[in-house]
Amino acid sequence: MRKPDVKIVLLGDMNVGKTSLLHRYMERRFQDTVSTVGGAFYLKQWRSYNISIWDTAGREQFHGLGSMYCRGAGAIILTYDVSHLQSLVELEDRFLGLTDTANTDCLFAIVGNKVDLTEDGAAEDQEKEEGSSGGAAGSCVSAKVPKQVKLEDAVALYKKILKYKMLDEKDVPAAEKMCFETSAKTGYNVDHLFETLFDMVVPMILRQRAEGPVQTVDISSYNKQPKPMKSGCCA
Amino acid sequence: MDAGGNTAAPAPADAEDLEATRLFGEEAGDSGGVQKDPPDPGDRDLEETGSKAKDQLPSLLSSLPQSETPSGTCEPWSPTAPRNSPTGGPENGPGGQGGDPSDEDWRSQRKHVFVLSEAGKPIYSRYGSVEALSATMGVMTALVSFVQSAGDAIRAIYAEDHKLVFLQQGPLLLVAVSRTPQSAAQLRGELLAVHAQIVSTLTRASVARIFAHKQNYDLRRLLAGSERTLDRLLDSVERDPGVLLLGAVRCVPLARPLREALGALLQRCTGPGLALSVLAVGGRLITAAQERTVLTECRLDPADLQLLLDWVGAPAFAAGEAWAPVCLPRFNPDGFFYAYVARLDAMPVCLLLLGTDREAFHAMAACRRLVEDGMRALGAIRALAEVAGLYNVPSANAPAYSVQAVGAPGLRHFLYKPLDIPDHHRQLPQFTSPELEAPYSREEERHRLSDLYHCLHARLHSTSRPLRLIYHVAEKETLLAWVTSKFELYTCLSPLVTKAGAILVVTKLLRWVKKEEDRLFIRYPPKYSTPPATSVDQAPHNGFFTGL
């Protein structure tokens, strides 16, 4: 059996597109998904590492298990919907508390999904969003909705999280690197998100292996030699 | 915490129903507010009703468009509406987006089911959008609270060809408005199943607590995504009435050695705190193994098992390995189990492992790998794939058999539930029935057959005059229903069959079932003993959301 080397958890309010993001990355396509029940566990081979990904339900009713999904997580992807401000607010109100059981060196990524729906469009950047409601109305053919969350808001949240976790900005990746805007529908930035994160957790895996087994004892792979340590880490 | 206890007990229906009718008659007479329209022109064939109610009840539905509030007032009731939009579309039933009570399509549905809170806040409607129905639901709340204020509880209203059945479960009110020939007791059974479905995702204690905390809470926020499960549940009642009528689950026909080998495999692959292991395909049971103490102390109710079977059939479990809390309402409506659900080897065969330890995901995942390895060793995967119709049977995801297999000409369909099983098997009430074939391939025909089965069932189990045997010549088929100490049987025969011919067919069928019973039913449900979960799970928070 493949033993996961690191755990990544997707958190966020319902309907922000967590399952779609993961599906886009794993299956390379977008499809209408149904509301997730509880959490779904996936194993992804990345280079020589096994990365486990928990796709969780955004519905409140499953919050009871949130801390279980996050236990020992190496990275947490906090997802919101760029066309829905409340979904960003919820991240701080409801989801941040669930991350208390994650590793102390857990990475946080903040992801604004559904940029394809907004007037700014996927490729656009932040500069002109003040005037975009007027300007974009003429250029957009399809029914776009105004973008409600700016990337700066996500950056601000990231800094709040660091404060909450009592982390020093110097010790963690910069906010600009950890805030993403994606579209699971078009695939925009999705690979970049996951692969950036995967690259960042690899050193964590190596550090963990160097420190030797911690906290948990895995009985099932007891008689199996762990993979050679240095293989495939030459990124 | 005592939510649901009060009115839930299925008391002898008839007396109270009549009472309710009378009460409603008074109510409508007094207030007069509801009766604006003339009686619905479609509602002519009356079956039984109080004289006053007769004129007024159809107007419950037909008057609503007039009293409907402008959409603006509905807004505060739907804070989640905008965010529901991505999933909102497909979740609306055949009734479409509108759901306007004045809409002909909406009104012509055979059966409506509504769930609302005590405060009258809409939670679920089988057809149409709940937003459009707030006024309708307001009327229902008014009816209920009016009768309540007289220290009574409304149970049913008979209005021409419509039956309205009310069921109060704690802070939730469930209403069925039906023009099927189903009895009020049967409709109540359906409402109980709907309620159980809601409880299974939230627990009764949570529902009670939420509403105690905030009376006008919008429960849809917590149930988002469950609407489709409720739709499917109600659809299945119409299409496949056996489950609810007989209170039993349906097994996949399987050679006994294979079934027993799979049962033994589940027995071997256990972990601490594991209470129930189920193998299912297409919503039907392959085998289920239960923890011994769970089994003897609290029997697994077939309704709970069916709920699990429906649950794991949901598209949400199509990919990955899922870990989710689930409540078994009959077993303990106030606590959660934790369920591991995964498809085996990318097959439609689904493994469900139910335990009490909320942290046991990885232990359960290890169990699954053992089950998978064991199944490969048994060569069971291919056999099950055949059963599941992956290779040759055209009707996929309905692992079943044809009525032709019985070899009794004239027999079109049947439902058979054995009652003579030894006591230690009874924790798994099962039934069997063949696939519905022509002439029951179209929806109307299926509904007709379902209605006939419901009628026969209601008469066999009538509280005032129960029957053992009914021979019923209907317009397009002849039916024979028979209940003995050994079985309960409903058969549907060709309309040209004679009484003697019908007896012959039934004799043949009974002989066939006897011969095939090892294949049709799980004869020896496997059991195992597992040590209790290491982590004490009955923590005070169990069954509650920490998020609220």
List keywords for this structure.
heterodimer; A: alpha/beta; Rossmann fold; 6-stranded mixed sheet; 6 strands; disordered C terminus; B: 548 residues; alpha+beta; Beta-Lactamase; 21 helices; 40% helix; disordered N terminus; FUZ/MON1/HPS1_longin_1 (chain B)
Describe this structure in words.
The complex is a heterodimer of chains A (235) and B (548). Chain A has a single domain, classed as 3-Layer(aba) Sandwich (Rossmann fold). In chain A, a hairpin with a 2-residue loop joins strand 2 and strand 3 (49-56). Chain A is α/β, with parallel strands linked by helices and 235 residues long. Chain A has seven helices and six strands, in the order E-H-E-E-H-E-H-E-H-H-H-E-H. Chain A is 33% helix and 17% strand. Chain A has a six-stranded mixed sheet, sandwiched between helices. By secondary structure, chain B is α+β, with helices and mostly antiparallel strands. Chain B has three domains: 104-239, Beta-Lactamase (2-Layer Sandwich), CATH 3.30.450.70; 249-393, Beta-Lactamase; 403-520, Beta-Lactamase (2-Layer Sandwich), CATH 3.30.450. Helices cover 40% and strands 18% of the residues of chain B. Chain B contains 21 helices and 17 strands. In chain B, the strands form four sheets. In chain B, strands 9-10-11-7-8-17 form a six-stranded mixed sheet, sandwiched between helices. In chain B, strands 2-1-5-4-3 form a five-stranded antiparallel sheet, with helices on both faces. Chain B has a four-stranded antiparallel sheet with strand order 12-16-15-14, sandwiched between helices. Chains A and B meet through strand 2, helix 2 and helix 3 of A and helix 7, helix 12, strand 9 and helix 18 of B. Chain B: Residues 111-233 form the FUZ/MON1/HPS1 first Longin domain. Chain B: Residues 90-99 have a biased composition (Gly residues). Chain B: It comes from Loxodonta africana. Chain B: Residues 1-106 are annotated as: Disordered.
